[in-house]
Hints:
Layout: H1 5-15, H2 17-24, E1 34-36, E2 41-43, E3 48-51, E4 56-60, H3 69-81, E5 88-92, H4 114-141, E6 149-151, E7 154-156, E8 163-165, H5 166-173, H6 202-206, E9 222-227, E10 235-239, H7 241-245, E11 250-256, E12 259-264, H8 267-276, E13 279-282, H9 291-304, E14 308-313, H10 316-322, E15 325-333, E16 345-351, E17 354-359, H11 364-373, E18 382-386, H12 400-412, E19 416-419, H13 422-427, E20 435-444, E21 447-457, H14 461-472, H15 481-490, E22 515-522, H16 535-554, H17 559-565, H18 571-584, E23 594-603, E24 606-617, E25 620-631, H19 638-657, E26 663-664, E27 667-668, E28 686-691, H20 706-721
Parallel strand pairs: 4-5, 9-19, 17-18, 21-22, 25-28
Antiparallel strand pairs: 1-2, 2-3, 3-4, 6-7, 7-8, 9-12, 10-13, 11-12, 14-22, 15-20, 16-17, 16-19, 20-21, 23-24, 24-25, 26-27
Helix pairs in contact: 3-4, 4-5, 11-12, 11-14, 14-15, 16-20, 19-20
Amino acid sequence: MTMNRRDFLKVGAGTSGSLMLALSLPGCSGMPTGYTQETGKWKPDAWLEITDNDKIHFTLARVEMGQGTYTGLTTLIAEELEVDPEAITPRFAPVAPEYRNPFYKLQLTGGSTSISSSWEPLRRAGASARQMLILAAASVWQVEAAECVARQGHVYHPNGQDSMRYGQLAELASKQSIRDEVPLKPAAEWKYIGKQHGRLDARAKSTGNAVYGIDVELPGMVYGVVSRPPRYGARVRTFNEEEVRAMPGVLDVFAIERGVAIVADKYWRARKAQEALKAEWDNEDALSVSTDEVFASYRRAADDDPGDSERSEGDYEAAAGNAGKVVEAEYSQPYLAHATLEPMNATAWYRENRIEVWAPTQAPDLGRIAAARVTDLSPGDVTINTTFLGGGFGRRLTQDYVEEAAAVAYRVKKPVKVIWSREEDTQHDLYRPAMLHRMQAGLDGNRLTGWHHQIVGPQLLTWYVRNAAPAQYPWAPKFMYGTLGKIGLLAEGVATPKDMSAIEGAVEYPYNVDNIDIRHTHTDPGIPVTFWRSVGYSHNGFAVETFMDELAYEAGEDPYQFRRELLAGQPRHLEVLDRAVSIAGWDSPVPEGRGRGIALFKSFGTFVAQVVEAGVENGKIKVYKVACALDCGQVVNPRIVEDQIEGGIIFGLTAAIYGEINFDKGKVRQSNFHDYQLMRQFELPEVTVDIVESTEAPTGVGEPGVPPVIPALGNALYALTGKRQRRLPLTADV
Length: 734
């Protein structure tokens, strides 16, 4: 089946109306609501449930992977419902269109969009429920609703003494109707939003009661492991099935699409059997590239193809021709693994022509497609139970680990937990893509007259569309899954969103330059890639802000002042830049053996400036201090904002100092934390986070701490050593 772009648009125009209508009425388009007499529960919308005995449940449409949605989104509901956030019990959402992320039209958590996508809908849900409770109480007391007040789970009579609990009012509230939109509380009346308070999941996590995917236990559960080929794309040819099957506790050994699965009654027995497995792989279609060849291919592509124009202003070629000096630089970044502390895992149970999956997934609706794809089931026959996630960072947007668990469970007809080892997690990841950047700029004295940026590397949609496209149309038969993916790629930028993964952060270049030329040369060496914390901003941040630093030195300017003079008309950029410099004491003497570096970057709507103070100790890079100022709009929970920015800084520094995945003829060289290191506790710098008070709509904080810290560290090392590093990871080259 083939379809050109014009035909796709015709079909899309005829089929997307009902979907968009459902999404335009959040919480009202198919989720059962109302009061149930038998259970004593009132469900006013897709998110809230209030019971006769005063229990309040909140259905959390975004997963909790440490970034604070469990607390932040609950706070939005609590504020308008007039209850303490502690009085609400969150639970993870099932797969349903009501819970889709409006930014992506998929039920996923990513892009630092949890608060921004929920800011108004959840507050309106809480406000509407509160008003219905007030109306119910007013009808009982025969008073004006406007004279009643909701406070701490009660509605109070105008006399200020009599009150009724929310649970008492649940059934009667379900019969109320609201014709007009309920006004939201003004900021001056907020009790919880913007206030410093703890996390609602802290106790469960610190006591071991929070259930992560790897914690799931089911009656009669067995354990599965999968041996995958060393080279991506290979297929199993033969393996010693009988020998492995005869080992203690082994229940089954069989081939699946991604390798050889071994199922045993105990996890350790499955691993021991895996050690005895001898598989021969068919490498005809396997990856064979090495890292050096990847970058050689990037350079050839850059030479042969100037790339698609992504932003063009003025006439860069003329500006470069007239410039007193043209500065050029090339930057490169390696493939990076995600290294989530909870390795990939999922539990699945096939029974009665249905399959149920328990998984730490960032995208449960894609997980449903993944499970249906490897069984004879339709997506409607798949139930996804989302657990807490021990780190996501974009890795758990891709559902290969769910596919494996579903394929194994479909065969053994028992509840089976499939767990990846740390080595498997490292060597069979989908990586942050390696990228190449060619930069050029014109300078007239100390004035920047032209900016050219050529970005070379793959896009992520090519790899992600496999399950994402069918998830948008779960009614489609499975034989169309491949076609839907092709249509999604064909319609990219027309009927589907443009893939910004390679260019984001580069095209938003904030500095005032008359002549700008930004291009993307698309080339893909076939290494599997996916989203990584801060995505394209991570590699573009390094290239843009390191080159800006180089230009400042070429112009004989202070790196801070050089940036500042180019930010006229950018007040939010300027404020965070000035604040970070002030915190860091930019103009004060640097301690001996240290250097300071600066970087400024906007990502996911959030403005971040950072100053890093670093040096070299015992032949290793040592980061002493990071001063960070950010403007993320209205803050819901300041403590969580600080935590996320600090976490992003450590994540970025880890990548800057240690991060590198290398391929050797299709095989990944790294395997565990000994050769793919994370920063350790004793290495952590002193971090200061300054949050700009703002009334702007909230933006993201899970990822914006990552992009600027990498170039800021590189710039600090240059200030110390006088040697410019244009390749990551950075080295202690003094």
